[in-house]
Amino acid sequence: MKLFFVVFAAALALTAAPQAKKADASKSSAKAAPKVTDGSKPMAIPADAVKDAEGDFRYTDPEGKKWIYRRTPFGVVRFEDSPERAATKAAAANGAFIKATEDGDIVHFERKGPFGLWKWDKKKSELDESEKAALQNSQAGDKTASKQDQ
């Protein structure tokens, strides 16, 4: 039993020695390491942030970068505000990603989603704004396609 304890203590001492060297090396190179933020602390929305109509908060930092803060069930997230994001959002609101086909009083819709193709049908009288825009885009696309065929 004593032999086992001595072997165990020696093995423990040998494994601890390289870790001490790594700690000393990291202290010497700490000046060159980039600043790392603590991801375990929850992110806060800045007091200067302005709430928009969708419930997001928009903020411009002192360096001039524009950020969007959003509350989610998992906490606050931050992402950079860019013109591409605004263009994609406007295209989605205009029904650019939805394919619509008319069948009398019913309109059939198709849209690519993260888990495959989403399909749904609605009466023309029950369409919302994005579905109306998708129907108009599809009708305009059909007219230009028929002109090109002639």
Outline the structure in words.
The chain is elongated. The longest helix has 27 residues, at 2-28. The model has no long low-confidence stretch (mean pLDDT 78). The protein has 150 residues and is α+β, with helices and mostly antiparallel strands. Among the domains are: 50-81; 94-149. It has helices at residues 2-28, 83-93, 129-149, and strands at 50-51, 57-60, 66-72, 75-80, 98-103, 106-113, 116-123. The chain is built from three helices and seven strands; from the N terminus they run αββββαβββα. The strands form two sheets. The chain has a four-stranded antiparallel β-sheet with strand order 1-2-3-4, with no helix packed on it.
Radius of gyration: 29 Å
Q: Could you say which structural class the secondary elements and strand pairing correspond to? A: alpha+beta
Strand arrangement, major sheet = 1-2-3-4
User: What's the pLDDT, averaged over the residues?
Assistant: 78
Residues in β-strands, percent: 25-35%
From the structure above, extract its key features.
three-stranded antiparallel sheet; elongated; single chain; 39% helix; alpha+beta; 150 residues
Q: What's the short version?
A:
The chain is of the alpha+beta class. Among the domains are: 32 residues; 56 residues.
Would you spell out the secondary-structure blueprint of this structure?
Elements: H1 2-28, E1 50-51, E2 57-60, E3 66-72, E4 75-80, H2 83-93, E5 98-103, E6 106-113, E7 116-123, H3 129-149
Antiparallel strand pairs: 1-2, 2-3, 3-4, 5-6, 6-7
